[in-house]
Amino acid sequence: MSQAAVKASSVPDSNRWKALVFIALAQLMVVLDATIVNIALPSAQQDLGISDGNRQWVVTAYALAFGGLLLFGGRIADLWGRKRAFVVGLAGFAAASALGGAATNEAMMFGARALQGVFGALLAPAALSLLAVMFTDAKERAKAFGIYGAIAGAGGAVGLILGGFLTEYLDWRWTFFVNIPFAVIAAAGAWFVIREPEGGRNRNPLDIPGVLLSTLGLVALVYGFTRAESDGWGDAVTVGMFVASAVLLLAFVVTEAKVKAPLLPLRVVTDRNRGGIYLSLGLAIIGMFGLFLFLTYYLQIVQGYSPVKTGFAFLPMIVGMIAGSTQIGTRLMTRVAPRLLMGPGFLVAAVGMLMLTQLEVDSSYAALLLPAMLLLGLGMGTAFMPAMSLATMGVKPQDSGVASAMVNTSQQVGGAIGTALLNTIAASATTTYIADHIGGAATRSQQQLVQLEGMVEGYTTAIWAAVGILVAAALIAFTFVNAGKPGSSPVASSEDGAEEELAVPVVAH
After folding, report:
1. What's the whole-model pTM score?
2. Whole-Å CA distances, 353 to 294, 296, 371, 378, 418
């Protein structure tokens, strides 16, 4: 990049804070969609006549398209320009949502969900990379990523509340239609407000072998975990998917090391700090995704909460995430090294998770669930915010799309692993508990109590595993992430040293 281009790109855009509103709105829509549909699933299944065996495809079709195409979506954003990719992603997501809301059979529903995943894979990395190239001052970057991190973390819980309201008081179709106003407002705002810095395009020809290998490898990986949840880890197709994924992703790495214009330049992931962030974020999401699922089931089935009441029960987690991200993370990010926010953040979340291992059938919400969720939210919000910022810091502008896509990929794959792994642990513990205790239950009510106790035993066993996973995320953050506080020392450079050094002063000057 020429010195003139560097100088031009370091001049902040006067509309950047207005742009943040529309970027945040789009991010909220994508994150909401991950949980809002789960609440509507029972009603949609009944209306559309979807069998129990096929029900998972409402979630899986979205996860496969979104997870499989993220790297491709990030590269398209670098090629087309992030603003154009962002607006096209929003328009496509809105159209796919309209199709899902109007679905008359299961094929139409599955197709709509897959399309949502395709356009989500274009939209999500474009949103994060727009923030990365628009907010270059260290303090401003901290505030912008604080807001973005809060939305990324709390959006899932907001989806539970909104999904509960729409399903209970309107109709499940509104969990799809609600995306349309979000997308229209965000797209219109982005079109008129966002001005992308010059010189950030990657106009190299598309790496077709890389696209095919990464997409097929990630789809096989996500599908392997999804299938493990329903058919078991020893199932022939499950094992075949994992083997195929390993072969394809290994071939992808070999290809990327050799081609002239790779889809994912290896310098993006081999950088010590970014590698540590992708790994620790992925692990943290494994713990979080399983927990959302278990707490939703616990509150609705064991405690008998309505969908709306369940959504509101997650409010302390939302409050904690917003406080951790915008108050703790934003205020301290320019004063301390990122690992001193990420490591302790994951450990605080692990303490909240540890409290939830004490769950019983009649546990008090105020005495146990509320403080545990508050700690979880605080810890995750504090850790997510510097992680999101550092993952794209020091990256050359023309690589910011794929670097952003890797953040989303680690979250998406982490979510797939978390749901499958923790569900399997929970199901196994529940089965064992019920088999051991059902013999002593003479009456119908005693048998029902054993069933509920078995479910809670399963949840707490899986939550113990989640505690260990969060502690591992903290250790990785402390060990791998060695960047200094923004503005004090450069981010550890990758092998592409000269060009990365150019980028660092633009980020923290």
Report:
1. 0.79
2. 12, 15, 10, 12, 14
